[in-house]
Every structure is written in structure tokens, then in C-alpha cells.
Amino acid sequence: MKLWIKYALASIIGILLGSYLFPTTTLFYQQLEFARQVVLNIGRYVLLPLFFFSLTYAAYKLRMERRILAVLGKSVLIVLVSSVILMIVGTAAVLLLDPERIPILVESEHVPDLPGVQEILLALFPANLFK
């Protein structure tokens, strides 16, 4: 399917949904926020495998083109130079701005409430995969 057809269909569906779903109540916004949170949490599950397999494929391609050492060398050089620059900026900021001491906060514990249905569904797909 061509890209312009996808855009046209998405625009038409969006216009139809926007004209039939009246966003005048807070219930609509709560349901929309819940749907947004679930979709984003499911999408985060795609990122780790995509990153892992893209990284291994890129390393394979660089190795086949015999460029992996050059790219690795440039990456290490960039990391070292940026680390030195950031250390200088951080040291200068502390010396010039003289930040105050971070206060120690004492907090009391409270009893958590029982989760609702939406919280349980959001817990099925947490924002962090390793939670």
C-alpha cells in the first residue's frame, strides 16, 4: 500500500472518530489517557528486541565491510573527548556557581490503596521491561 494512501486513510479515520466521539466529558479523556498509556507500554516492549537485533546486524555488516575497528576507534575517541569536556564543564559549574548542600528529607510511610482494574491492566505491560 502506498504511503499517501495510508496517510489519507489515517486522516479520514481520524476525522470520522473526531466528529463522532465528542471529547466533552472527563470520562472520555480518562479513557483516552488509559489507552495511550497501554499503547505506549506495549510499544516499549518492541524497543529492546529491535535495538538488540539492529545492533547485532550493524556489527555484522561493519565486520563484513572491514570497518568495525575504525568505527569503534572513532566511538571511543568521541566518548573520551566528551567525557573530558563534561568534566571540565561540571567542575567549572561547581567552582563558579557554588551550589548549596542538598537537604536531607525525612518522609513517613503510608498504606497503599488497592489497585483498580486500569492499574492492573497497566501492570501487565509496565513502562520498564525489567520492573
Short description:
The protein is mainly alpha-helical and 131 residues long.
Overview of the structural elements:
By secondary structure, the protein is an all-alpha fold. The protein has a domain at 31-97 and 119-124. The chain has helices at 3-20, 26-64, 68-97, 117-124. It is extended.
Q: How large, in whole angstroms, is the Cα Rg?
A: 25 Å
Q: Strand tally, please? A: 0
What is the CA-CA span between the terminal residues? 38 Å
Q: How does the major sheet shape up?
A: none
Low-confidence stretches: none
What class would the helix/strand composition place it in? mainly alpha
As a percent range, the share of helical residues equals over 70%
Order of helices and strands: HHHH
Supply the number of helical segments.
4
Shape: extended
Mean pLDDT: 87
Query: How large a portion of the residues is in β-strands, by DSSP E?
Result: under 5%
Show the helix and strand layout.
Blueprint: H1 3-20, H2 26-64, H3 68-97, H4 117-124
Describe the structure using short key phrases.
single chain, mainly alpha, 4 helices
